[in-house]
Design goal:
Structural class: mainly alpha
Order of helices and strands: HHHHHHHH
Shape: elongated
Largest sheet: none
Number of strands: 0
Strand content: under 5%
Helix content: 55-70%
Length: about 190
């Protein structure tokens, strides 16, 4: 037993254990630093530089900041770059943010301009509905997406009336309007 204890307490073994502990501490410190930098960048989305290697979470934070700050076109572009990244909940969040952006623009146009912007409003609402439906299919527990989808359906303007046909003539028989079918029976 004494020999085993002497062997276990040898300087080589103690040095190896000390190196292993030092390597673990360095790894934990490096990991902590990366998380600290990531959280610092999340706290200041305006300072995030977007490159092809930028993490999708940081791109989402930057796009949301742009959406809130009044640059919807750049936010839409950034959302488009991360639509297929991450897990289902992340993709649902991206779709929700994108649908909400379209819905907000459509509601603003509807309030400001009314039916004068009928085509643009309907286009924005269709895009909002598609994004919100996709968000709900990825994550059915998103109640905000359900609410916004219901709101999009409620503010959808009625379809424009088509001009009426002012045809005044009378149609005597179906054969008068279809000249290629011969009249009469067999």
């Amino acid at each position: 037993m004494e020999r085993l204890m002497r062997h276990l307490l040898s300087p080589w073994l103690l040095g190896g254990l000390a190196l292993l502990c030092l390597a673990g501490a360095l790894h934990a410190g490096a990991r902590w630093y990366r998380l600290h930098e990531y959280n610092r960048r999340l706290a200041e989305p305006a300072s995030i530089d977007i490159t092809p290697d930028t993490d999708a979470g940081l791109v989402l934070a930057k796009a949301y900041r742009l959406q809130s700050g009044g640059d919807p076109l750049e936010a839409i572009r950034l959302y488009g770059t991360i639509l297929q990244q991450g897990d289902a909940r992340f993709r649902a969040q991206v779709r929700y943010n994108l649908g909400t952006l379209y819905l907000r623009d459509a509601a603003r146009l509807w309030k400001d301009r009314g039916l004068l912007e009928h085509v643009r409003i309907n286009t924005l609402l269709a895009a909002a509905k598609d994004s919100l439906r996709e968000s709900l299919s990825l994550d059915p527990t998103q109640w905000d997406a359900r609410y916004n989808l219901e709101y999009a359906y409620r503010i959808t303007p009625p379809p424009k009336e088509k001009p009426k046909n002012d045809f005044q003539g009378s149609k005597g028989s179906v054969f008068a309007t279809l000249p290629s079918i011969p009249g009469g029976g067999p």
